[in-house]
Amino acid sequence: MLPRVTGAESLLRTLAANGVDTCFMNPGTSEMHFVAALERVPSVRGFLCLFEGVCSGAADGYARVTGNPAATLLHLGPGLANGLANFHNARKARSPIVSIVGEHATQHLKVEAPLTSDIAAFARTVSDAVRVASGTDDVGPAASATVESAWGPPGQVATLIIPADYSWSQTDVVGWAAQRRQRCVPSGCTIDRARRAIREGGAAILLGGTAVNPRGLSAAGRTGARVVTARNVGKIAWGRDRFPAAQVPYFPESAMPFLQDVRSLILVETEPPVSFFAYPDTPSEMAPADCEKIVLATREQDGTAALDALADGMPPIAIPTVEPVTALRDDAALTVDSVGVSIAALVPLNALVADEMVSSAAKVLGHLAAAAPHEFMPVTGGAIGQGLPVALGAAVAAPDRKVIALEADGSGMYTLQALWTMARHRLDVTVVIFANRRYRILDIEMKRTGANAIGDAVNNAIDIGRPRLDWVKLSEACGVEATRAATNREFAMQFEDAMKRPGPRLIEAVLP
Amino acid sequence: MLPRVTGAESLLRTLAANGVDTCFMNPGTSEMHFVAALERVPSVRGFLCLFEGVCSGAADGYARVTGNPAATLLHLGPGLANGLANFHNARKARSPIVSIVGEHATQHLKVEAPLTSDIAAFARTVSDAVRVASGTDDVGPAASATVESAWGPPGQVATLIIPADYSWSQTDVVGWAAQRRQRCVPSGCTIDRARRAIREGGAAILLGGTAVNPRGLSAAGRTGARVVTARNVGKIAWGRDRFPAAQVPYFPESAMPFLQDVRSLILVETEPPVSFFAYPDTPSEMAPADCEKIVLATREQDGTAALDALADGMPPIAIPTVEPVTALRDDAALTVDSVGVSIAALVPLNALVADEMVSSAAKVLGHLAAAAPHEFMPVTGGAIGQGLPVALGAAVAAPDRKVIALEADGSGMYTLQALWTMARHRLDVTVVIFANRRYRILDIEMKRTGANAIGDAVNNAIDIGRPRLDWVKLSEACGVEATRAATNREFAMQFEDAMKRPGPRLIEAVLP
After folding, report:
1. Distance (Å, rounded) from C-alpha B325 to C-alpha A174?
2. Is A173 helix (H, G, I), strand (E, B) or coil?
3. Based on the number of CB atoms within 10 Å of its own CB, is A289 exposed (0-12), middle (13-18) or buried (19 or more)?
4. Predicted structure pTM score
5. Which of B78, B449, B470 sits opposite A88 (nearest CB)?
6. Where do the domains of chain B lie, and which CATH numbers do they carry?
7. pLDDT per residue as tens digits for the range B149-176
8. Which residues of B touch A384 (CB under 8 A)?
9. Chain A residues touching B122 at Cβ < 8 A
10. What sign for the dihedral angle of Cα B383, B388, B390, B393?
């Protein structure tokens, strides 16, 4: 029993007691009691974002780094709607998130107010669990249940909708200590089956979920099987001194030859790889149709422990030496490759790299294999606008690590409001904008889909360079120091400086 | 029978044949054939927007001005998700919109690709009609049916989801000429009933929907009843020389006394007024509980014709003379009132004014009653981020009229990408940013909801002035000329200049 508090305060106390102490928010009238309760539960820190897609993406980034959920606090159906695209990405990354959404007071639901909408319908599009608090006394318990859903495993976007009157009324109930289900280790016979497949030859291990960590990679390497990583994982241990596991390529014409010799595919916390998009006369599944699929660990299980068991008794293997690279400091115009080399040379140990480079990603990721060991946070759900918010959330989660957002100009425009929150909290994020002034990926896809048209109408749908976006001004307008680099020398100097000084920083890398 | 064309081209031909010739778009891979078809159906003009919320809001603005639908073209579930908030507003405005969403090719739906989602579930949250094309031959017919749904009456957000293979395959079928259902005039007995209520005294006519036009206002005035306008209408005929019909106030403590003497409420294309939000101990319905509700015209009917019939035989009434006001040109610091006065003095005849001033709206609307006759496009659904996109769509719809977006700084940040499309097409939009550097409305709501907390945590959720957003840089970065005004003289000079010169322009009005 507690002294009586508002439902909103019960919610916050429940979240805090379960370790959910970070809230990315854009509240409105129906969430005012939640905001008021932040004064009384100071262990929960609120981070205001100027657009809800920043909140949901930041919670994704926070979860990828910590493995634990942050909360988001959004305003009614439309506020939630603005967060859905990045919740979609978070769901595909299996990031745990506690999504709190305010609803009109229950007595107001019978009328058609301007902001009335079916919040649960919005939420179900991206959430594995959707709850509506059934009364003030239920707010705390529903929050505990929501935390349990978020934890998974695997992590889920779990939504809790709270009518305003349950938030402003009094209760003496807080939620319980949420129970965390442990990931279990697959049975011995599953492991034996995978071991047999490796012995027979032609086996590849596809690492996904939480297993793409140094221990998982190293264990997979020791098995002697070929090791490949899935694309849609929250983070990948990358850089030198890690077992070099190539990512399944993006385009089917590369992915299919890449996998064509695989006779058995050993799946670790992931599903068989599929192509991002469909194309005329191209299959959706990238592995050979007749290859055997062996599920070593499901999404719910502990893939790393399964790999340890699979490699049990195998000798350590030597990780091939990769030489560090040197930043390019000549006066040549920047290219995607030269930017990639200089970043690879200068990235500090243990950095967190958020990716949304789109058409530039494959080349840069290749160069980063020679960088100091770091964690790379890939695109997971393909909804544009992920990169800057994920970097923001990662920086809140790990204030002692340098965060680098590698961002395309087209994608960056989706959630550029993230820059403002980086500036407000002086977060240690360096943003590199790959400014090619086109939706370059669509130039490629236009040909690949067979549409293959050229002309003014097509160009008007792909060219984002008329007028030219000025990323230096956009960044400064949001309070983030910014510079522009057109040559290798300029980029290396600016990026090196950014790596040395803490705080937010943006570099617009002008590309052909 | 046609020469065989792609499904995408059949779609475009069907839209063009039904007068839907404007498309606000942000396409992706699954829409490449649609983009290619734009080359072959040049009567449909595509406007690229750098975020989907700009597309949906622009289509809303276009519909409010023309009464006809524009199309939007969005990419899969997450692209649609980013457009939902402004579709919500459009739905509440009863704006007709044809929302086209690309889906993965049907053979790809069996796998869980990164962008796989339940598009129809996203669409249903804001659409009155959701269709999925059932084959290539169905694309054109489904487009015709979607146009019919969009037309209503009342206007609807009608969604058509098209799998990519139906877009890229060939067909010789195009859609039919869509049939427009006419709004009908209410029966004589309904009109008699309203006439009796007016004769008995204490009647008020609440004008909504399409009836808030000069003819409807004037007819309502001639009936002798009190005339009041609903808040959630797509546009209001406003300014001098119009029958002065006050809007129902925003806050219940004003709206309830405003309506307390009403004994019968005559509803014209609208519902009884409700408060925007619920508060402890405040009812949701603003009219007295015992007042009689008379539906003179439903949302589907022709409210203007009903008012004409109601006023039949009544003499014309003199519209009270309102003197024009003069712009303020002193060196005093700007206030919301002084900005309102100067805008009212300088707005040109027949301007289109898009509102998203939030806490500043009531004062400015009051001053605009003395402006030259214009059309005011209010907030309808309360989802933030409406103002700039609605202004963009209005400018595309009416290139011969000056468009003015009156925008709060907090709301403006939601869809500032609209500025870029204004710049690309040199649209004649003047944006005024009411920069008070707070979510000022939340200062008010914090007290009104009874939460009433103060402290750093609360201030951090409401103060958007640390760091200060620089709207001049944001605007210039998107290619729109911009200035900042802190005094009455500066504002009047800048706004006057903007009214004289065509093309996009932004003024950051610095407010206390």
Report:
1. 58
2. coil
3. exposed
4. 0.98
5. B78
6. 5-171 (3.40.50.970), 188-310 (3.40.50), 336-510 (3.40.50.970)
7. 999 999 999 999 999 999 999 999 999 9
8. 78-79
9. 84, 125
10. negative
